[in-house]
Structure formats: C-alpha cells, structure tokens
C-alpha cells in the first residue's frame, strides 16, 4: 500500500544569528511512514521536537537535509525541495493542519473561518457554510456565536473552531497538534469520534497528544521522538 | 454575495523579473532581482526603509526603466513581453485595465475634488464604457463591495476619512478587473482598527477575483495576512525568499531573524 507520508532521514537545526550564531539542533535522522487510514502519535517530552516534525511535514519549517515525501495528486512530492506554489497546492488539497492555537483574521465570522478551506477549493459558499454549521453544532458551539469572530471566545471554544476548520476538508492527510488540550471530557469525546471517522475515510494522520487516555483511543502506532534527538 | 472563483491552476507565470537592477549614479538601489509571479499569487516585498522596496515596485510597474535585467509580463494574448519593448499604447492599456496601483497616500491615486462615483467611473470610461446608467450602477456596486455607504457616492473623497479614501482607491483600481495589482504600503498611515478592516477586505477581494498582487510593506503582519510568498530585501538585494509562513516562522538570514524578532507581541 502506498505510504501517504514517507519521511527519510530528515534533519532540522535552528541557527540563531542574533545569539552569536548558536546552533540549536532539533531533530536528526527522522524516518517513518504513515499509511492511509492510520493514526500515528508522536510521543516524547516537551522540547523533543514533536511540533517541529509536524511543521516540517506541513512545509512550515524547512529541512536542512532529508526527504519529506507526500503523496499528492497521484504522485509522491518531496516537500523539502518543493517550490512555494507546490507547497500551497499540497496544503489546498492534500494536507490539513490543526494547530494548538487559532490564528484567525480579525473581523471574520466564525462560520466563515471554518468554511474558508472548502471555499478555497471551489465549494459554493452556501454549501460550505452548511457543512461548517454542521461541524460547529457537533462540536457544541452554539449557533448564536456563529456570526461572531472567534477572537473573543474562550480558549476551549477557539480550539473547537480550529478543529472544525481543520476537519471540514476531505484532505487525505491531517496533522493534529494537541487537538484536545483545552477541551472538556464531552468535547474530547467528540474529537475522538471525528478522528475515528477520518480513519474510516482513509485519512492518514500524525498527532501530538499528551493525554494518555486519548492517545490510547486514537493511536494505531506510537513513535517515540526521543530516538530522533539531535543532541550535538 | 460573490462566489469565490476556483484558484487558477495556471502554470504560466504572469510576470518574470530577471537580473533586475537599478543604479542611481553609484548607488545600486536594486540589484539582481529574479522571480516569477503566477496568476492568483500574492507576493509581499518586505524590508526597512531604504532597502529598495519602492524602487523595485516602480521597476516592476514600468514606472522606472531598469539599469540592468528585464521585467516580462504575459499580455492577455498569452505572449510574454519585455516591458521595455512595449509601445506607448500597450503600456497605457496595462495601466488602464490590466494593472492596478494602490498608493500609500490615496490622494495620489484618486482625484480628490471629483465625486467618488466619478473616481470609479473614470477607469471604466477609459476602457470605452459610455452608458451613464451602467457606469453608475457598476460604481455603486463597487462602493458596496468596499463597504462605502452608497449615499456618499456624489461626495468628493476629500470629505472622506483616511480608511474610506483607501477603500475608494481600491474600488477604483479593481473596477476594470485587472489581473495584477501593485500595492505600496496599502495600510500605512491608518489606525489599527481601520487597518484590520482594510486587510480583511483586500484579502477577500484578492481571493474572490483570483488577482495576482505585489505588495510592498514594512509590516510583517500585513505580509502574513495577505501574501503567499515573501521576498526580504536589504541594501537593494533580495536576501531571503520563500513561502510567507516559512520565512516568518523559520527565518534563516540574520537580518530576517532581526526583523521577525522585532515584532511586538499583540
């Protein structure tokens, strides 16, 4: 079966020019594969490089060496060497990313924040809003909040808006950075169900979760990131 | 509400800069700039004052002739042409219809003493529209799109606030459905709440119309919100370039790291 994600010997070091060129090795020798319908959870202590690996897969951090193979539109593309517009294409149709924090444009109503990824791939606005509403309802965001921008929402509400935005598309790859961190038990369950649904739909996922219970529920495989530690 | 157009999967660049440079006497204001801009793509040019951003924008928009290198633009017939080789009529065509230019100071891009409606209508008349009713209807609908109260259509922009003037300038530029818009510090000089509204508006218009844009800004937050790609300039050179979030979240060059680390947290 084709791997949706195939990482080979990827390496990342930060060079801090403002601190006299200090080199901060993050990860080295990162190699793993993720198949369709599989959820891989990255584990390891804070600072081990879990989020950095997710950002490398999303093309947000640049790799110093190695390969980030992404199965995109019928072929494997090396994201570590891709052109900016290729990476944008991958994000539009192949990789979704749910970050820990919502970074929304001011003034945009919640429903449109959630619907935007669908609209960007050509879904008519009314349909996209319909689907956004269904997801928001399922994540227990009351309808009276939908037309308000999420900037005034509580941490947990913002995170649920973020999850709705990340889960609305049919991207075959989904990256989840602490999707349940500030949620109560009821909403954590909803997220676990949403992840299950994505698995059944054949979506390949890489997640970071600190909650042992959630990890047990969603992980098909756990990868210990400390084995990629790049202590120089 | 306007439906969003599907992003263009056009594989032909709209504009190509090749070894572009401009000297003022012995001062090299801009050196060896190379890039390709694709339809629907928004490119931000960032850097501090004096880094060559504005000179570059003027070179790209054919307002200044380069000392070296060239800028090519894909005309509506699909042919990539060197801007320097264009005749006066072709150049005028670009300025009137295919390009927009949003100045930092709206007074430079608007006629301050004639009505808002005429400011928008003038660009339409320049491309041959002559039916008063249609021109007025189109102008009205554009004022609505940029969130200007249509009751103000007969007022001159000198009676408008700074934010309204900037939105009117955008309407005037976009009414002819250009394929490429140049913007020089479009939110400079506006207060923060007005900036946020303008950014949101520009972001939506750019994606709805599938516009390509080149935005000069010293404000990295503007670059993050509006652009897909960013070029960082220093001393007339492009020192770092890439996907906007890549360059801002993982800057490699010392100067870019300085710029990014100088942002005050909100």
What does this molecule look like?
The complex is a heterodimer of chains A (232) and B (266). In chain A, 34% of the residues lie in helices and 27% in strands. Chain A has helices at 50-58, 84-93, 110-120, 125-138, 155-167, 185-200, 212-218, and strands at 3-16, 22-35, 39-43, 65-72, 75-78, 95-98, 173-177, 204-208, 221-224. In chain A, helix 3 crosses helix 4 and helix 3 (110-120) runs parallel beside helix 5. Chain A is globular, with a radius of gyration of 18 Å. The relative contact order of chain A is 0.20. Chain B has a domain at 15-109 and 180-261: Rossmann fold (3-Layer(aba) Sandwich). Chain B has helices at residues 53-60, 88-98, 106-109, 116-126, 132-145, 162-174, 192-209, 220-226, 244-249, 254-261; strands at residues 15-24, 27-37, 42-46, 68-74, 80-82, 99-102, 180-184, 212-217, 229-234, 237-243. In chain B, strand 9 and strand 10 (237-243) form a beta hairpin. In chain B, helix 4 (116-126) packs across helix 5 and helix 4 packs parallel to helix 6 (162-174). The longest helix of chain B has 18 residues, at 192-209. Mean pLDDT of chain B is 90; it is low at 1-9. The A-B interface holds A 14-18, 55, 59-62, 84-85, 87-88, 92, 105-108, 119-122, 124-125 and B 1, 3-4, 6-7, 38, 41, 196-197, 199-200, 203, 207, 225, 228-229, 242-243, 245-246, 249-250, 252-254, 257-258, 261.
C-alpha geometry of chain B: globular
How far apart, in Å, are the first and last alpha carbons of chain B?
Answer: 32 Å
Structural class of chain A: alpha/beta
Count of β-strands of chain A: 9
CATH class of the domain at 15-109 and 180-261 in chain B: Alpha Beta
Strand order, sheet with most strands of chain A: 6-7-8-3-9
Arithmetic mean of pLDDT of chain B: 90
What is the overall number of helices of chain B?
A: 10
The SS-based structural class of chain B is alpha/beta
Share of β-strand residues of chain B? 15-25%
Portion in beta strands of chain A = 25-35%
CATH-defined architecture of the domain at 15-109 and 180-261 in chain B: 3-Layer(aba) Sandwich
State the order of secondary-structure elements of chain A, H for helix, E for strand. EEEHEEHEHHHEHEHE
CATH fold name of the domain at 15-109 and 180-261 in chain B: Rossmann fold
| Portion in helices of chain B | 25-40%
State the CATH superfamily name of the domain at 15-109 and 180-261 in chain B.
P-loop containing nucleotide triphosphate hydrolases
Distance between the amino and carboxyl termini of chain A: 36 Å
